[in-house]
């Protein structure tokens, strides 16, 4: 591969919290790769297409932006205690090219590799794929666990937040390869990770789980925080041996 075909991004290693000014500022920048290492090398949580709310496209207009997915990935990584990798406002498509993003995700050969994406027109609110029909049993199992934890959270908040409990129970989740729209069958990172023996998941979230109707682009809606908890708990349930913190507790959003 020639140097010109290698998608370079500026690497930003951070240790600060998700509420820090540093974290928010990096997520606004173009073509940066943000990394945080929580100490467990078995799982990588990534967001290849993060952009601030309001930006419609990335990669020179060739693909829609996944607004605020970096914040969702950060929430999940805070519980899974693995590694976090976020590509910000990328000038090329990070998960379909060789480059800095591929090197710091698939290139690290994690036991579990997860990508967080955003959709506006999928068949379900949350779609989970391993990128191939042959691996649908794995994505279906994770989707089943996500649904279970969403229901558990709904039960926990029902007395204090009945409307939120109803919203959580009404979310649709699917991991069946034939039924979902966002199959990720042409996603290089998912395919390469799977071929290298990693458990690879491509998770698509509807806009309602990532963006508030009003307010700052430096946060996600309350329901998105609870969905992050459900995903991290599901990952810990299915791949507990790879995850340092196995039982993410329900917490009030910051």
Question: What is the compact description of this entry?
Answer:
By secondary structure, this protein is α/β, with parallel strands linked by helices. It is built from 7 helices and 11 strands.
Features:
alpha/beta; disordered C terminus; Aminopeptidase; 7 helices; 11 strands; single chain; two-stranded antiparallel ribbon; 254 residues
| CA-based gyration radius | 17 Å
Q: What is the name of the CATH topology?
A: Aminopeptidase
Spans of 5+ residues with little confidence (pLDDT < 50)?
Answer: 245-254
Characterize the quaternary organization of these chains.
Answer: single chain
**How many β-strand stretches?**
11
Number of helices: 7
Looking at the overall shape, the CATH architecture is: 3-Layer(aba) Sandwich
Biggest sheet: strands, sense, closure?
9 strands, mixed
What is the structural class?
Answer: alpha/beta
Domain module tally? 1
Question: Topology as H/E string?
Answer: EHEEEEEHEHEEHHEHEH
How far apart the termini lie comes to 45 Å
DSSP helix fraction: 25-40%
CATH superfamily: Poly-gamma-glutamate hydrolase, zinc-binding motif
Strand content: 15-25%
Please, what is the average pLDDT? 90
